[in-house]
Amino acid sequence: MQKIVVVGRVSERLNKVKEELQSYIETQHNAKLVTVRPGYVETVMEPSVQCLIVDVEFINKNIFPTVVQVRKTGYSGPILVLGNPAQGFDLKEFQGVQGLYHLQKPYQESQLVGLIKNCINIEYLRKRRDQRFSVCEQATLESYNSDVRMQTTISDISRSGVRIEGALGELRQGDLLKLHFNFDKIQKERVMNARIVWIKRSAESKEEAGLEFISQKAVYKYLLDVAVA
Fold first, then answer.
1. What does the alpha-carbon distance between residue 198 and residue 68 come to, in Å, rounded to a whole number?
2. Which of 18, 73, 165, 229 is the most exposed place for a label (fewest CB within 10 A)?
3. Which backbone phi and psi does 43 adopt, to 5 degrees?
4. Which residues of 212-227 are buried (b: 16+ CB within 10 A; e: fewer)?
């Protein structure tokens, strides 16, 4: 099933977006559109979600905590924000957030549908490119943000990142890490730099996190920014 989630505070706007996407939903096989208030986003997030739409009156820095909240659910797909930038807010800040897009109001229905199609196609291509393989390999983490060094388990891996499980302690979303792992089956040892995209801690004390690989240049930039601050 293909699922699109629309998040917003104003019922009239949620219904309006639902009407605008109705023709697109009807042309898709086994597709579904769900509307929800911001405080209940986690209740509707599941693997079938292909796109998340956030409707706001004005776009400001408050959108970034919302993105973090969504990513903590494990969702890594496109997030489309509908709204106009608040005074003093530069939409260029979106460029630093992977998978975050925007559409200014007022817009044509065709613009919204076209952007949704593009987002879903990009997500499909990304998933094909980033095919994940289930593994169970031990790894060592070193944090660039602190003196933390710990053992963890890699549960799946792709070209763009890994998912890890274990006691993650003080690690937080956005932390930069050095990841040491040695895959026994292929007898290859690797050291990669990574950023924590999301962390999930369940009631059963199970902790897991999604890491995206980053370049050494990104690490240098981070360390220089910290040194200058």
1. 8
2. 229
3. -75, -15
4. bbbeeeebeebeeeee
Please state, in angstroms and rounded to a whole number, the distance separating the CA atoms of residues 87 and 120. 30
Is residue 194 within 8 Å of residue 175, measured between CB atoms? Answer: no
**pTM attached to this predicted model:** 0.57
Tokens 């730099």 appear where?
193
Written as six digits, the tokens of 49 are: 């979600």
Q: 20-24 contacts: CB < 8 A, separation 24 or more? A: 20/109, 20/112, 20/113, 21/112, 21/113, 21/116, 23/113, 24/113, 24/116, 24/117
* CA-angle at 39, arms to 36 and 42, nearest 5°: 75
116 pLDDT higher than 80 = yes
User: Quick one: 88 exposed, middle or buried, by C-beta within 10 A (0-12, 13-18, 19+)?
Assistant: exposed
Q: Which residue has the higher pLDDT, 229 or 206?
A: 206
Residues 229, 209: Cα–Cα separation, whole Å: 28
Backbone φ, ψ for residue 44 (5° rounding) = -115, -5
pLDDT tens digits for range 87-102? 988 888 887 787 888 8
12-51 residue pLDDT tens: 999 999 999 988 888 877 788 999 998 888 888 887 888 8
Of residues 177 and 119, the one with the higher pLDDT is 177
> DSSP for 172-183?
-TT-EEEEEEEE
In which element (H, E) is residue 199 found? strand 188-201
Helical H segments across the chain, by residue range: 11-27, 63-71, 109-129, 216-228
User: Which amino acid would we find at residue 136?
Assistant: C
